[in-house]
Amino acid sequence: MLIKRSPNGIELPFSSEITPRVVFEARRGFIKWVAAGSIAGGAFFEMATREALAQTGGLPKLAARLNPAYSSMDKPSAYKDATTYNNFYEFGTDKADPAQNAATLRPRPWSVSIEGEIKKPMTLDLDALMKIAPMEERIYRMRCVEGWSMVIPWIGYSLSELIKKVEPTGDAKYIEFVSLADKKQMPGVGSRVLTWPYVEGLRIDEANHPLALLTFGMYGATLPNQNGAPVRITLPWKYGFKSAKSIVKIRFVKEQPRTAWNLVAPAEYGFYSNVNPNVDHPRWSQGSERRIGEDGFFARKRKTLMFNGYNDVASLYAGMDLKKFF
Questions:
Q1: Interaxial angle between packed helices 42-55 and 20-35, expressed in degrees from 0 to 180 and rounded to the nearest 10
Q2: Which residue in 70, 221, 248, 316 could disulfide with 138, CB within 3.0 to 4.6 Å?
């Protein structure tokens, strides 16, 4: 079995060679053993690989090297929790609806159109899009505006890699992400809860931050349909709805995009939607959260961290009134 070596000399396994739900903590221990000079562990990872295939329901494995610089040391959420408790309104408004209804989504063939204020507009099929940069695994804390959170190992590469390839012009101030809206594949499309297609957006400097991940997989395999297959954005310092799923178009634009939830309820869902315990949603406090799978309804909630704990993004908002620009 092949084990890759990181620049600092610590040997790191590919995510496809581990069972994220069961052995994440053990893997951390294994990395420590390797750093200390241990050679044990081959049989351990062979067992873990077999278990990973069963865990992800037979989804194709996706090889990626763990990036410890962007990996929370929180215990990852169970794969079952991360794939059965979702917000994906194209498949229904209940948290269980996406897992029950998303089998109708056809993630291949798939292409993404990249257009707007760029020098090199292009349309890439999924395989070409996945080859823009080497895949990394990153363990991110994720926080939902409703007050629940998870810790998920994602697979992808920094969105900035794609941005460099298409060469934005000086007029590109924002990026708009457009999700698939196909009534045949998505039973929730056509409901009046949102204006379709689902649209999200970022300032260009936010999109270029290394934490912004163009995402193709999770838990060592490709994305399940209910989690935004085959390609999504993952933004761990923002509330979950900002991470657009099942993307078919990326547009570089001059003006701030009119995003889905901001259109429906601008007093509740601001354009920036940074995790901020000091700015409550009109219907929910944002000062605390419940970690799905760990914190029961009667357990004491954990405190929510500013920017979800990713404080290196703070410079993006220097001088801004974050209560006004929420």
A1: 160
A2: 70
